[in-house]
Design goal:
The protein is α+β, with helices and mostly antiparallel strands. The protein contains five helices and eleven strands. The chain folds into two domains: 91 residues, Probable tRNA modification gtpase trme, domain 1 (Gyrase A, domain 2); 79 residues, Heterotetrameric sarcosine oxidase (Alpha-Beta Plaits). Strand 5 and strand 6 form a beta hairpin. It is elongated.
Length: 191
């Protein structure tokens, strides 16, 4: 049985009005829960991932292969290259106290759409009620919000002097709907 899902959208790259949209299906995603005040938990996670779990709201930390995204005071999303997800999951489970933590592979129930282009914030402002330029000021900021009744996680991937690049994490079941709305929004951008 093949547990590796195919891309939801079956697109390689869509480019309309200078905005490209693609599905990133080569990411592993691990949901980690534990107490940020537990020094042993924090130390052990840091030793496995070679990163310190962020404790500041809506922040992402990363090294070359792994990103850790703050979701709540006691919950994080760990992004890994898909080929390394099982190894990272196994290391976390063997290192962390199972009575005090929850570690779940969520790679197959979530997908990521990457939007790139100079007018990405303009496009997203059609569907969101947050000020993205304020909330996603730096390339380590993330935002949790609602996209037309659908909970999403937004992650900024670019530095200030680069073309805007945003990842949208969402449930796989909503990806086609959100993608079609984004394509329609690109077609009617007044730029």
């Amino acid at each position: 049985m093949n547990l590796n899902p195919s891309p939801v959208l079956k697109i390689s790259n869509e480019n309309l009005n200078g905005i490209s949209i693609q599905e990133r299906n080569l990411l592993g995603k691990i949901n980690l829960r534990g107490k940020s005040g537990d020094k042993e938990f924090m130390k052990n996670v840091g030793s496995v991932l070679d990163l310190v779990l962020p404790i500041e709201p809506n922040v992402r930390v990363s090294n070359n292969n792994i990103s850790i995204i703050w979701l709540s005071p006691n919950e994080w999303l760990i992004e890994t290259p898909k080929a390394e997800t099982k190894k990272v999951l196994t290391l976390l489970k063997s290192t962390l106290n199972p009575q005090k933590t929850a570690i779940t592979d969520v790679s197959y129930n979530r997908t990521v759409l990457r939007l790139e282009g100079d007018h990405v914030f303009t496009l997203l402002s059609k569907y969101l009620v947050i000020n993205l330029e304020e909330v996603l000021k730096t390339n380590y900021n993330v935002a949790q919000t609602i996209f037309i009744k659908i909970p999403i996680l937004l992650i900024r991937n670019n530095s200030n002097n680069e073309t805007i690049s945003i990842d949208i994490h969402l449930n796989r079941s909503h990806a086609k709907y959100v993608y079609e709305l984004l394509i329609d929004g690109c077609k009617i951008l007044n730029i």
